[in-house]
Design goal:
Blueprint: E1 3-6, H1 10-25, E2 30-32, E3 39-43, H2 47-57, E4 67-68, H3 84-93, E5 98-103, E6 118-122, H4 127-136, E7 139-143, H5 155-162, E8 168-171, E9 182-185, E10 192-195, H6 201-208, E11 213-214
Parallel strand pairs: 1-8, 2-8, 4-6, 5-9, 10-11
Antiparallel strand pairs: 2-3, 3-7, 4-7, 5-6, 9-10
EC number: 2.7.7.87
Subcellular location: Cytoplasm
InterPro entries: DHBP_synth_RibB-like_a/b_dom, Sua5-like_dom, TC-AMP_synthase_SUA5
Length: 215
């Protein structure tokens, strides 16, 4: 039976974060608030947990699961190299609604779906998400909804769609307008904007000093 924890109450928040950390380490699913929409997440390095996440969303591996991190430095162990463009964007927009696609470190033995050797990384601007990520490490996190349905902006909306397929729901209150993160692909010679969210193409171009190609 899934448990929901109200993170607006200090004691309940502490209990919820502890339960969520145990759940992630056990290879099961949690729902957590982020600064964009609610996410459903698991241990990024557990192939069975990622498979369960995709099954809960009724989605196949053709749409790989992004990875959330709790600090800037975490990215160094996850990608082959961090170019200056990525460093500049991280400094400007992390934590926040900007996702970066980079070649992942060849030594990593994770299975996030059909990534073609890449990983999409983001550091969310939400205290509950950051506390959990700093405890358990990188998490595979996708929007907390069944594929094709609206993304959840509350824990209740997430639970209505995912039910007992998730063990722990961390309720951080409404996420506000359900705006997804901006995605910038840095795997090629020219940065490409794959999706526009709160961070605009103009803001990205201003930071990196060059135009961004549109996908």
């Amino acid at each position: 039976m899934a448990e929901t924890y109200d993170c607006a109450v200090a004691d309940t928040r502490a209990a919820g974060l502890a339960a969520a950390a145990r759940t992630v380490r056990a290879g099961r699913l949690v729902v957590l608030p982020t600064d964009t929409v609610y996410g459903v997440g698991c241990d990024a390095f557990s192939a069975s947990a990622v498979a369960a996440l995709l099954a809960a969303k009724r989605r196949g591996p053709d749409m790989p699961v992004p990875v959330l991190v709790g600090s800037w430095s975490t990215i160094d162990g996850l990608v082959a190299r961090v170019p200056k463009t990525a460093r500049d964007l991280i400094e400007a927009f992390w934590p926040g609604p900007l996702s970066l696609v980079l070649p992942h470190a060849p030594s990593l033995t994770w299975d996030l779906g059909r990534t073609k050797g890449t990983v999409m990384l983001r550091m969310p601007l939400h205290p509950v998400a950051l506390e959990l990520l700093r405890d358990v490490g990188p998490m595979a996190v996708s929007s907390a909804n069944v594929s094709g349905q609206p993304p959840a902006s509350t824990a209740e909306e997430a639970r209505a769609q995912l039910g007992d397929l998730v063990d722990v729901y961390l309720d951080g209150g409404p996420s506000g307008e359900p705006v997804a993160s901006t995605i910038v692909d840095l795997t090629g010679d020219v940065p490409r904007l794959l999706r526009t969210g709160d961070v605009t193409a103009e803001q990205v171009a201003e930071v990196i000093g060059r135009e961004v190609a549109l996908a």
